[in-house]
Fold these 3 entries.
Entry 1:
Amino acid sequence: MGTVLSGLGLVKKYASATALAGVDVAVGERESLAIMGPSGSGKSTLLHTLAGIIRPDDGQVLLRGERIDHWGENRLSALRRRRFGFVFQSGQLLPELPAEENVALPLMLEGMLRKHAVARARRWFAPLGLEGLEQRRPGQLSGGQAQRVAIARALVAEPDVVFADEPTGALDQSTGEEVVRLLTSVTREQGASLVMVTHDADVAAHCDRILQVRDGRVHGHIQYTTAP
Ligand SMILES: Nc1ncnc2c1ncn2[C@@H]1O[C@H](COP(=O)(O)OP(=O)(O)OP(=O)(O)O)[C@@H](O)[C@H]1O
């Protein structure tokens, strides 16, 4: 399995805390990696550093072997739009746009005509169990449906890597399980890798591998031979 994304010796310090104290991590082709650890252990900082949102103080981030951590802001934001997809805990959809336009947004931002972008966006509704909800606005969707729309938006531009930060954090247990099951399976089918921060061991168990982080360091790995 080839490596898509890697972090080597990542260090990130804030005035009051060392969020990352030298982290090595590699994410394989189509692999799903869960990042777990106590509150304040550096999970979100690690995800944001791998995604080119936070610049590390030391160490390197490589996408398909190419170093990206020292790229300029414009180049990094174009990379994030084209090659990465993002799913957050909640509140990431634009309330005034119908679901299909929310999904189409990354394509429109890249200059695709609205009707073409929406046509491509609609293809994601059936695989995510969202058929018939294309015209609904986010306020007319349940929490689980809104997260599935967010997953469709993260995948629509066919990214190399999807980053998810507590994607089930605002959902009840069974809705969260359904969302993570779809997130891991659809991401894999699309050919992308997944990096997901979660507090929830049941959610993490849907990933191929779990990275345990503690005090800004990798504390351990759990490798599943087959994800559920
Ligand atoms: N912008 C910031 N400024 C100062 N300190 C920060 C900043 N971001 C994170 N930290 C500190 O870095 C450490 C790691 O934070 P991080 O958010 O990565 O942890 P986490 O494991 O994601 O926590 P949680 O599970 O509570 O979200 C913490 O001590 C935090 O207080």
Entry 2:
Amino acid sequence: MNRKLTDRANLGQTVGTEARFFTETIEVETLDPLAFFEAGRSHYGDHRFFWQNADKTVKLVGVGQAAVLTADTHRFQSISRQWKALYGRLIKEEKDMDPVLFGGFSFDPQTRQDDEWTAFPAAYFTVPLIQLKIDNGKTYVSINYVTDELEAAAQFEGLRQERDRLIHIAQVDEFTLQGKPAIVSQTELATDRYMEAVENVTSQIKAQVAEKVVIARKIKLSFEEEFQKATALHAITNEQQASYHFGLQIGEEMFFGATPERLVEISKGQAYSACVAGSIHRGKTALEDQQLGEQLLRDKKNREEHQYVVDMITEVFSEFCSSLHVNKTPKLLKVRDIQHLFTPVEGKLAEDQDIFRLVEALHPTPALGGVPRKKALAIIRDEEQMDRGFYAGPIGWTDAAGNGEFAVAIRSGLLSGKDAYLYAGGGIVADSMPTEEYKETWVKFRPVLRALGGSLHE
Ligand SMILES: C=C(O[C@H]1C=CC=C(C(=O)O)[C@@H]1O)C(=O)O
Ligand SMILES: [Mg+2]
């Protein structure tokens, strides 16, 4: 039994057969998405989300819940089915935007469950009550409302007032962020276990039990006071520019991060993914940076880490797409602290496919799981001895038209009261060295560590 799910059974609205799903959109003057997120705190402080894609053409903020979809078994199909049932009841005019379904999946529902992740079920998605969408520079605010009652006009009018209140606060009131609270402690959890795990995994790979396995570890930070969620999001958006920025708040907890890795985007019938695996740090000078990049492109161990991901994503795309494009050799993807090997994958999505099927087929890629997938997951469960929660899982959005985007939730952490849990890992292949992998995780911890004011281990 999944205790997380039973804990959450009373949350949100179920979709009854009589339910109707109303939406209404207005276009407004530009506003700061974080100011809107913060404006929602007093009334909807327990349920908010924030998202922006890597090129910042799509920004989303949701506050409150019009509907909540959760799932335990067959979680990808279950969310897809629930979403179809819900938007099948959608009543909208042409000028109205599609409501957004936002959420994510945990990395591995079969792993052990640690207390910090209790609020996060194996799959959690929400349609916000009030939704901000900035799409190619235009700003839209929608109200979404699901009801069984025949007479919903009064509630809807109340929501319009709420919408206007939030817009006003975000546009007019001064938006002040609280400072970062002082850190009481920063603890590496089970570093010895991590080093041993990397050692064991390389031996298993040499013995041909698996080909590649990603092993991760965590750091715990404790603060003098609770870390304000908007402050954490503001800090992370300034950390690592060319990345997806996300925050998903469920009750007191918020999972957030800045990931450079797209899992899948569907836009107008095209599907896009990215193989991101294999890493080296940034150079201190432009020249050193370039030399490090060239070294990474030539490095056998990193190319091997990368190739497993390319092979797997290519295989999935050949199954789901009618045509396909994959580059033969990787490029470099440079973000603030790290450079990765990067191969974009693109295809024309076959008829009758949906984003949840693709997410299911792709998750976890060998950039976060391993090869073969099942064996790698079993080794991760045995060796890591921790609950990754939503770290390394798919996080993102979709709409009724079938468009949407999911990123791989790495470079991420969970804010939980006065504590934060940060996660980072790396792909282990036969030639991996525990001390080198350990160093690589420190580089990957940096964006969230810096955002929270932790010490970087330089
Ligand atoms: C597992 C992580 O990164 C993955 C993504 C890119 C590069 C990776 C690597 O070089 O090991 C990892 O596969 C992480 O950031 O926690
Ligand atoms: Mg690596």
Entry 3:
Amino acid sequence: MSKLAQRSISLLFAGSIVVLLLASKSSITTMRLSPLDPSSYSNAHELIIRHVDLDWTVNFDKSTISGTATLHFKLLKSELQEIFLDVSDITISSVAVKTSAGEAPVDWDVGGTVDNIGTKLTIYLPTKTSGELTLVIAYETSPKASALQWLTPEQTFGKKHPYLFSQCQAIHARSILPCQDTPAVKFTYNATLRHPTEVTGLMSAIKVDSEPGVSKFQQKTPIPSYLLAIVVGALVSKPIGPISSVWAEQEQIDEAAEEFSQTADFIAKAEEICGPYVWERYDLLVMPPSFPFGGMENPCLTFVTPTLLAGDKSLATVVAHEIAHSWTGNLVTNKNFEHFWLNEGFTVFVEGKIVGRLAGNASRDFHALHGLSELSDCIKTQLADTPELTKLVVDLSECGPDDAFSTVPYIKGSTFLRYLEDLLGGPEKFEPFFRAYLNRFKYQSVLTNDFKQMLYDWFREDPKNEVLLERINWDTWLFGEGMPPVIPNYDRSMLEACLAHAALWAENDLETIKASPLLKQTLVSVQMIEFLAQLLEKKTIVDLSAEKLALLADTYGLSSTKNAELRFRLVRLYIRARLMDKMDEILAFLNSNFRMKFVRPIYKELAGWPTAKPIAVDNYNRVKDQMMTVCAYTVAKDLGLSDAE
Ligand SMILES: CC/C=C\C/C=C\C[C@@H](O)/C=C/C=C/C=C\[C@@H](O)CCCC(=O)O
Ligand SMILES: [Zn+2]
């Protein structure tokens, strides 16, 4: 973890920088900021936020949000004298304790900034307190708040109105409000949002009231801070199900409604698997192309990338994934991001079950096998220099969650659950346990041990399971590096055609390929994606030339495809073939969206091609201001640019 280990620390007192230290690796190698969460300063073992009232004004002219956050705490300890909160690039103007008698200002200071983590806000309580406590904090965010992206009208489809959106996971909520920015703590929230009258404001909550320029929201189900979300822009909506509408700019609304027409079916299957849906609404919002992820499970309003708009619903499984989060992640939440697999591995597992129920078990297994291809690619490329990040449970005491993010918790985690399901008697035995686990831990935050303990308690009811439970090598699954230690016995029927096509193109010259009867076989979109993924996995491809890739693109209609997963892989083949003639096409895809899943591997591959690297760096410098902070930061690292180290 050496490259990640360095966290620079600066001390600030009431806004002014006093000392700047660069912590040496050795002085902080075992630093854990708080007992519950290595990525948070909060003393959440001593008090917890139960409810937040936000009064926010969105200032497009300054690219800031200003207003107040009223934090309602429950104290877990008597005689508490200090409260530690997380902040990042926030300017605080006042902190007051609120009682029935009014508001009384209290002392506070900020200090101890750790790179990629943020700053500690200490609030000094005047009298020894116990029970409950309410703090009112008046503040303004920075134009560079890492959770926010501000778009000019020119950067939107409609070109008329500005646009603001947030992405708080994992630890960026601290850049939009002072809080205990740890998933160990859950709170309900109410918000009053003031914004220009011509645009619409939405949040990860139910809209309870609106008048021109003011929208009010209520989230009655407790959420961790990373699920706080806001969007303000020229948005319209279209109903797509009994509890669902899709939101987008006018130009994309019809396309989006069609692409995501299976939403209600996904919800129905998810309820069969997980239990009743508690969030009242499930709306979707199609984001601008700079949204850095495929989807974000913001409660009541999932955010999705426009790169899902393939035209044939082939990428809509991301919506099934986000729906599954309504239980796994949003109801039962990882206590800190070292146990992120409890959110993501569980969600991919449910996503697979939704696919299985709607399209059959062959599709479920194909989906899982495709996940393993993505995992293998990620381990060999993105994580080649940081094998410790291929563990299911990672150590975040030395690096920020954004640095540790990968597909490992998703795919290794879901593979582990499938292994457990197969071992312990299949879906018939495992699903009742799974539902009971969700029911037991709903509204709570959990660690891996909570899951393990419940699994043992449940399956030990039948003594015959003892011998099966003994077979589980928890240590290797949780702390072993690399690919999963056991690959379940998946149905490979849909994969075979992908392997055959990949072998054909990798092992043969043009004439042999042209004559192959395999070319008459039709592959569905998801098989096409997997076929290209398999081709990219090949160590050598015979005659990887412009002609061969032109024939490939032509044969499978790749040049004109709208499918971003296909374009992503085609572009990577162009780079592998060192096709400088294709640089415009490569850059066009690279600049068409800033979803990290796509742009990071492409930049990384360009960085490994000496002639192309300066072009990639130059392109990055030109467009980085259009990226979200997390994307700009991680791509800079992938390109080996020093300011990201
Ligand atoms: C083991 C990793 C530890 C911590 C990482 C946790 C969060 C990291 C952060 O960068 C935020 C991630 C947010 C993800 C949101 C949605 C994903 O499901 C998208 C997956 C990739 C994609 O499809 O684009
Ligand atoms: Zn997810």
